[in-house]
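Posting this for the archive.
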Amino acid sequence: MSKKLVLILLFSVVIKMSAQDGKSKFVVGFNYGFGSEFNNKDYTFTNHFYKLQLYYKLKQKKYFQFEILVQPEINFATHQLLNFYFVKPDDQNYIEKREKYTQLKDVHEYVLNLGFLIRKPISKNCSFYILGSIGPMITDTETERMSDGFAFADVLAIGFSVKLKDVQFDLRPSIRHVSNAGLGEENAGYNTENIEFGISYSL
C-alpha cells in the first residue's frame, strides 16, 4: 500500500471520528493574497500568493472559538535593491554584488504555515478573528537581504468571516516577516503588508 493511500485513509478516519459528534471540526479552503513591502528607500518587494487552508476547531467557549490552522503556501514575488550602498565596500566582491542585486529578480517561496486562531462571533453568520502563524519555507533566489534556501515566515493577521451554511468567505489583512534566523549569510529579511481573500467549506 502506498504512503499516499495510507495518508488518505488516516485523514478520512480522523474526519469520520470528528463527525461522530454531530459535526466535523475540520474546514478546508483556499486563499489568494497579495502585498508589498512597507514604504522604504532601500528595496522593492511585491508578492502574490496562494494558500490551501485546513482549519481544526480545538475548543468552543461562550464568547470565543479556538482553532489551529495548517496552510501550505506558494508565494511569487519580485524584488529589487534600490539603495546599492546597502552592499558595503567591506563585503567581498561588493561591486559585482551591487550590480547583481540592483537587477529586478523573481523570487519563489514555498511555505508551510502553522497557525493559531482566536475567533469572536458577532452574529450567527459573522465573526472576527486574530491569527498568528509561523512556518518553515524554502526560497529559491539569493538577494542582498536574504540567502536562498531555508528560512521562516511569520504572519500576524486579523480577519472577518461571513458564513453561509457550510461555506465561509474571509477577508484577512496581515503583516508578514521573512528571515532565516541567522542560518544563512544574509538575514535582513523582508517585511510586507498583505491582504487575503478566501473561501472555505466545513466538512
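The chain has one domain: 24-202. The CA atoms of residues 28 and 54 lie 5 Å apart.
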